[in-house]
Structures are given as C-alpha cells and as structure tokens.
Design brief:
Layout: H1 3-11, H2 20-30, E1 39-43, H3 48-61, E2 66-69, E3 81-83, E4 86-87, H4 90-107, H5 111-125, E5 130-134, E6 151-154, H6 162-165, H7 169-176, E7 185-188, H8 194-203, E8 208-210, H9 225-240, H10 249-255, E9 263-267, E10 270-274, H11 279-289, E11 295-299, H12 306-314, E12 319-324, H13 333-340, E13 344-346, H14 347-355, E14 361-365, H15 367-374, H16 377-381
C-alpha cells in the first residue's frame, strides 16, 4: 500500500478506544521513554486546538523544541502531528506506521489511538522539550489521558457530543475534568460548572485554578473574542510553569494564526472562514463578530444542534445558504431547507460563487466542511 491507502485504511478504524490502562501498557512496553516527555494536555468543548497553538507558539518563541498533537485535521492527516510548527513528513509518518502496523492490527487500535501512539513515538525520536496534546473527546476516557502531564487545561464546557458525554453541562464538565491528575497543575478558563470540576480536582488530589492573565497592556484588537479567551488560558498556564517571558507576548499575538478559525481567505471583498461546528462555537463566533452583513454559507453534521445553530445565525442580517458536501454524517439539509426556507446548494456551486463573490461572505460550520473549503483556498483567494 502507498501512504494514501494506509491513511485511508486507518481513517476507517473508528469506534471506542481501549481502556486507558491498556493504551498506557502498550506505550510503556514499546515506547518506554515517553515517560520523559514534558506534556501539556488541553481539553474542553471548543478552543482546544487554538489553545494548543498559543502554547506552541509561546514555547517556540522561548527557543524550546515543541511537539503538538491535534485533531481532527482540516487539510491533511499529517497535520495532526507537528514538531516545531511543521507537519510530520509523509516519509516519516509511513516509516513509523510500518514499524508498528502489525501491532496496530493485532490489538485493533482505533484511528485516534494510532495517531496518538505515532505522535508520541515521533516526539520521543525528535527529542521535543515540550509537547502539547489536544484531547480528542471528553477527557476521562480519552486515550490522551493515559499519558503523564505537567499541566492539564480546560477551555470551556458546552453542550456537544451529548450521546457520549452526558445530556447536562454538569455531566459533561465531570467528563472533561476527568483529565486532572494528582499533584498536576490544573487550570480552567470557563467557570461553568466550576464546582463540579473543582470536586473532581479534589478527588484527584490537585487544586483547580481559574485562568487569569491581564491583557490590558497588550494589543489584542486583531483577535476575535474567543481567541483572547484561549490566549488568557495559555498565558496562565505558562506563567504557572515559569515558562513565560512577558517581552515575547506581543510579537506572538501579532503573528498568531490557526487555520480554519476566523481565517481570512480574501480581504476585498471579505471572505471569512470559521470552524464554528457546534452551538458553543456559533456563540463564540457571534461574540467575536457581533454583526455580519452579506452571505453566509453553512453546513453542519447531523449530531450537532443544527436547529439552534441556524436560528442563531438567522438573527444576523445576512442571506444564509446551506451547503451540501460529501460526508456520511451530514445533517438532513432537505429537512432544514423545508423548515427554515433556506436555499441549499452543492459544494461545487458554492466554490464557483465564491470565485466571483462581490459581497462579504462568511463560511462556517462543520470542521470537515471547513477542511474541504481550505483545499480550494487558492481559487477563492485569487
């Protein structure tokens, strides 16, 4: 198999992860030096990837060699594993995969477990000084929680993945707080259900701190509101770990970007892309933009709160268009079209319209949708 076939093969390996002790045992046996890695774990409903990027950029600014593991990917599966801001090379990915392919098959690891296992192998090989690990889903049972950390962070708590994490904010908060570990720094930005998370921290014999960093002396005007929240969490963590030098903060803020989050594809007329893939994400986007006039292209997966998301978007003075793209988990857009009387078009038609757009345009929704748009960014931006 060529690398594309190998990636396609593991992407079909969905399902529940193995118990944490099993995944930990595999790492201890096959990659024992993983225990020497200094890792920071980032959990929460939204903003995990952005917070990882903030941490990554600040640590690199201080001269540290960093590793970063995030999911899902937007453009290439390789982007899930990065060292010093660069995706793992295809040849390196294939070399590591081939070395452990029989083990992956024998133990029937899921795609997420394979990705994480390979990331840890690569980080050890590359001698990273700090690694940033994004939780896949939830926290308590997530494969990333099998690792050791110097800090565990929670961005926020919102209603998402309710079929797995619970149907109330308290239940979801408890699942996310499951990442806390004994005598390990724990910080949360969002104080929603803080008492629930604090109780879990107490049970794990650690203290939960609230993210707190004064941004008043910094210029954050170019950042969307939700990125300022992620920034505060990252800065709070690094200050607690004594890894932060204030003089470097502004330069990182000035150059910050995270693909698919308030990404400007074209400036005139404005074409803005944002992975607001759930209701908390939509609320965060609205806080950041406050208003938007133009055309909004939107697509959503069936397990998300599509009705609430559309109702909130419709409050803007904009023309909303639903976009159909190839994805088995796509919501029933025909039902949404009939109920809200919103036009529906195919993805290819949207791309054609974007090329000749003469008004401000916002593209938002599913991260898979955002990823497909990014594959056409050169056409849209020209």
């Amino acid at each position: 198999m060529v690398i594309q076939d190998k990636i396609k093969y593991i992407e079909a390996k969905r399902g529940r992860n193995h118990p944490l002790f099993m995944f930990r045992n595999w790492l201890d046996e096959k990659v024992p030096s993983h225990r020497e890695l200094k890792l920071i774990q980032v959990g929460g409903t939204n903003g995990k990837g952005s917070t990882c990027q903030w941490l990554n950029l600040f640590l690199r600014k201080e001269g540290f060699r960093t590793g970063m593991f995030t999911s899902p990917h937007l453009v290439s599966h390789l982007e899930r594993i990065q060292v010093d801001g660069s995706w793992i090379e295809a040849s390196e990915w294939e070399r590591i995969y081939d070395r452990y392919a029989d083990f992956f098959e024998e133990e029937q690891l899921t795609m997420f477990e394979i990705d994480l296992f390979m990331a840890i192998v690569y980080f050890v090989e590359q001698k990273v000084e700090y690694g940033i690990i994004e939780v896949g889903m939830g926290g308590r049972l997530d494969a990333t929680t099998a690792l050791d950390y110097i800090a565990t962070l929670i961005t926020n708590v919102g209603m998402d993945h309710t079929e797995y994490l619970g149907t109330t904010l308290s239940q979801i908060a408890k699942e996310k707080a499951g990442i806390f570990k004994e005598s390990t720094l724990a910080i949360a930005y969002d104080t929603t259900c803080f008492s629930v998370m604090e109780e879990e921290a107490f049970r794990k014999r650690t203290s939960l701190l609230v993210a707190d960093y004064d941004l008043s002396n910094l210029d954050t005007s170019a950042l969307p509101a939700y990125q300022r929240e992620n920034l505060v969490l990252a800065l709070s963590c690094l200050r607690q770990l004594k890894l932060l030098k204030p003089y470097s903060i502004q330069s990182v803020i000035d150059s910050f970007s995270w693909l698919g989050r308030c990404t400007v594809l074209r400036k005139d007329p404005l074409v803005l892309l944002d992975g607001a893939h759930n209701m908390p994400g939509i609320e965060a986007l609205i806080r950041s933009l406050s208003s938007f006039e133009g055309v909004i292209y939107f697509s959503v997966l069936k397990e998300k709160e599509s009705d609430k998301m559309i109702k909130r978007i419709l409050k803007w003075n904009s023309n909303v268009v639903l976009v159909r793209f190839e994805e088995e988990r796509l919501a029933d857009l025909d039902v949404l079209h009939a109920h809200y009387r919103i036009p529906t078009i195919d993805f290819e038609d949207m791309i054609d319209r974007l090329k000749g757009a003469k008004t401000s345009t916002l593209i938002c929704g599913s991260l898979y949708f955002v990823g497909k748009v990014l594959a056409h960014r050169d056409e849209i931006g020209s």
